[in-house]
Amino acid sequence: MNNLCVAHRGFSYIAPENTMAAITMAMAESFVQWVEIDTQLSKDGIPVVIHDFTLNRTTNGKGLVKDHTWAQLQQLDAGSWKSRAFRGERIPTLDEVLKLSCGRLRLNIELKTKGDMYPGLEQAVMERIAYYHMQNDVVLTSFDTDALRKVKELNPNFPTGLIIDARPLDLLERLKELRCSFLSIGATHLDSTLASMLVSAGITVMAWTVDDATGMKRLASINPEIMICTNRPDVWGATFLEHKQSFWHWKSQKRD
């Protein structure tokens, strides 16, 4: 099983998603080479790392992320909802995550936006990535096709990826039109035919979100190029080690 492990919002099974704790815990697993995070803008234009458009689920705050300044967001507790052990975890800035990850991890950064919700999001995010010279270690993904087009307008060479939870017949044509080299797709929509077609077309494929060993093994059997996005890097690690041990046992039996 050679499929790359992508930690979904960090090690989000144990730690509060999209926090420095979750990303640090993911980094502690030697086999985690990628982390997926989500970014939006504060009211004063600072890229921050949080999934929901509202603060309600993952912080002790209320209301829309975009209606709060960074100073206000910084005061919120983004950890207690998960566990008392993470009380006091904050919403991180994208800068904090990039600084921590630089030279150590690659990032799938989802642009969380819809319509004209976040004017300037793409440019703000790309400027921070450029500051840390991480253009070759990041892919910008989104459900929002206008956001992907904006990235290409700003820098035609910046890698982008469409996020989709479907299997449209014209998927490859859509990716070509958007100039995407990456696809983030719900795992249930992938089979060997689709995976082979995408990989042959030069598309990097990431399947989400798979937390069980059976699902991981299914994806691995379909194509070794599929990246597996999971809240459970620990399950990925155990599954990989089991596969590796079985392989070497088979090799030793053949030698005997």
Automatic annotation (TrEMBL):
UniProt xrefs under Pfam families: GDPD (PF03009)
Please name the GO terms that the record assigns under molecular function.
phosphoric diester hydrolase activity
Membrane-spanning intervals of the chain? none
Q: Which GO terms describe its biological process?
A: lipid metabolic process
Boundaries of each GP-PDE domain copy? 3-240
- The name this protein carries in UniProt is Glycerophosphodiester phosphodiesterase
